[in-house]
Amino acid sequence: MTDQPTTTAMSPLPAKPTTTVVLLFGGRSSEHSISCATAGGVLSAIDRAKYTVIPVGITRDGAFTLQPDDADKFALNPDEMPEVTDNDTRIHWPESALSSELTVTDADGSTRSLGDVDVVFPILHGPFGEDGTIQGLIELTGLPYVGNGVLASAMGMNKHFTKLALEAAGVAVAPWVTVSAVQWQRQPAVWRQRASSLGFPVFVKPARAGSSVGVTKVTSPDELVNAFATAFAEDSTALVEQAMTGREIECGVLSGRDGGDTRVSVAGEIVVTGRDFYDFEAKYLDVSAAELICPAPLHDGELWQMQRTAARAFEAIGGAGLARVDFFFDGVEFVVNEINTLPGFTPISMFPKCWAASGMTYPELIDELIELGRETVR
Fold first, then answer.
1. Rounded Cα gap, residues 210 and 123, in angstroms
2. Integer Cα distance of 315 and 286 in angstroms
3. Domain ranges of the chain
4. pTM score, two decimals?
5. What is the pLDDT at residue 7?
6. pLDDT, tens digit, for every residue of 61-93?
7. How many helices (H) and strands (E) does the chain have?
8. Beta sheet of 90-92, edge-to-edge order
9. Quick one: 156-173+246-375 is in which CATH superfamily?
10. How far apart are CA 30 and CA 12, in angstroms?
């Protein structure tokens, strides 16, 4: 009797991820570390069965570097904020819009391919990332990308032009005046009078900054000089904005799929304790300074009004992908404070919290944003 060969059942090979994502973070703005913390959150949650991730970190000097795929390295730590360090690698974008290949020159000077890219996921906050500049660079490559386009990003980043667009769309905003550093230097008395005409307290803000960087609450004309100095350290233009009373309400916005209606999450509320306002430290460094309540208690009619206003604001700037809309609510009217076209996206940030309360988990939200980025026509 001839021995029969034995066969061993072969286990199927794991499916290769079908989508390659460039995660783009860091950058030249004062929000560099917050962008790195956002990267840490995405790296820890993105579905590795679906995606191959290429972490591209931009140093504070603007160098595009290949960073380790290590969520812990970029975790939010108030005692030691995360940073993109220059490891002497250099990323090279595709040579033309006919290619989708990303390459890297390693520290030893050799250049290698990182493969074809399906979509870029920019999670840069502030200037040179949230203001349309990086979006323009990516569009030149021809690669799809997550989030808002050049115009919506530039408009959403500039608080003055956001207000103009929202007013034109019939959306309520806080009264304000805008002044450049040159105007302030030439006619300080004139601009002190115009700022004072709004009534105190007021907030002095850089026109183009986020995370409450450079923002000062001013209670008298004597405080304006220092407040403007702080704002002008971040941008050449500043806003003086009338302080609004009421609850601080926020919500997340997503584009509709396949041409559908804009989607808006449930509301979240910020309750600040022990501080004059929701500043940078309250947002990221002092967990006891503010409570994020999600979902926020709103009546059905109030929730509908908020969602309708948020969608109108998003559409007024030509939004695509995602945004967070921030309101003051006095019990009658929702007044838009800001539109954030690249909102904080750490797992504890309000944007993902609102969508989680609306039934979309953090990993599902990442999936949704990537799919929106791939289908958006620029």
1. 13
2. 34
3. 19-145, 156-173+246-375, 176-242
4. 0.88
5. 40
6. 999 999 999 999 998 887 889 999 999 999 999
7. 11, 16
8. 90-92, 101-105, 111-116
9. ATP-grasp fold, B domain (3.30.470.20)
10. 48
